[in-house]
Amino acid sequence: MEKKISSKEIFKGSLLHVKKDEVMLENGRKSFREYVLHPGAVAVVPVLDDNKVVLVKQFRYPIGKELLEIPAGKFDFKDEDPLECAKRELKEETGFVAKAYLYLGYIHTTPGFSNEVIHLYLARDLESGQSSPDEDEIIDVQIEDFDTVLQKCINGEITDAKTIAGIFKAYFMLRSENNG
């Protein structure tokens, strides 16, 4: 374990909070750790009755290109219920509402420099509706066959980590339901 000696705030924005801590390592040496505090988020794998997945395509500024992803979003406030956040984000980004949600666990997205945790859900029994993305979101909803999306995760066409994790977890969950 590393022990915090001191902590300094580097930046505090509307989404991210950056800190720099001096730490004592297990070997007795001192070092620094710069890291990002994140409020937490959810991601949803919405699967239609015909085994198609509802995805969103959007431009991601930090990497300078569009990505195909599962719907996702950050918590609006501290200790927000992940399921409620998942319901809100699915509706906002895609217009779909699900009657059934299954919790797939959570992932640490980038533990080398952030404490971000994303809770993953499988959403089924979907009804379409009108989306209402945030003002700063330009989202293109796409519906693709589950096996096609799985193949895109495998071959590198989909590179978003939460999407890959969500699709694989949903695949194994659905497969175990169908086999057992």
Helix and strand arrangement:
Blueprint: E1 3-12, E2 17-24, E3 30-37, E4 41-46, E5 52-60, E6 65-69, E7 72-74, H1 82-94, E8 97-108, E9 117-127, E10 140-145, H2 146-155, H3 161-179
Parallel strand pairs: 4-9
Antiparallel strand pairs: 1-2, 2-3, 4-7, 5-6, 5-10, 8-9
Task: Describe this protein's structure.
- The chain is an alpha+beta fold and 180 residues long.
- It folds into two domains: 3-37; 41-179, Nucleoside Triphosphate Pyrophosphohydrolase.
- It is 23% helix and 43% strand.
- The chain is built from three helices and ten strands.
- The protein has helices spanning 82-94, 146-155, 161-179; strands spanning 3-12, 17-24, 30-37, 41-46, 52-60, 65-69, 72-74, 97-108, 117-127, 140-145.
- Helix 2 crosses helix 3 (161-179).
- The longest helix has 19 residues, at 161-179.
- The protein is globular and about 55 Å long.
- The N and C termini lie far apart (42 Å).
Query: What's the Cα radius of gyration?
Result: 18 Å
Number of helices: 3
CATH-defined topology of the largest domain: Nucleoside Triphosphate Pyrophosphohydrolase
- Low-pLDDT regions: none
**Spatial order of strands in the largest sheet:** 7-4-9-8
Secondary structure class reads alpha+beta
Strand percentage lies at 35-45%
Query: Could you tell me how far the N terminus lies from the C terminus, measured between alpha carbons in angstroms?
Result: 42 Å
**What is the level-2 CATH architecture name of the largest domain?**
Alpha-Beta Complex
CATH class membership of the largest domain: Alpha Beta
Please outline the major beta sheet. 4 strands, mixed
Question: Order of SSEs, N→C?
Answer: EEEEEEEHEEEHH
Q: CATH homologous superfamily of the largest domain - what is it?
A: Nucleoside Triphosphate Pyrophosphohydrolase
Give a count of the beta strands, DSSP E runs of length 2 or more: 10
When the domains are counted, the total is 2
What share of the residues lie within helices?
10-25%
Average pLDDT score:
95
Outline type = globular
InterPro entries: NUDIX_hydrolase-like_dom_sf, NUDIX_hydrolase_dom
Organism: Thermosipho japonicus
Enzyme class: hydrolase
Cofactor: Mg(2+)
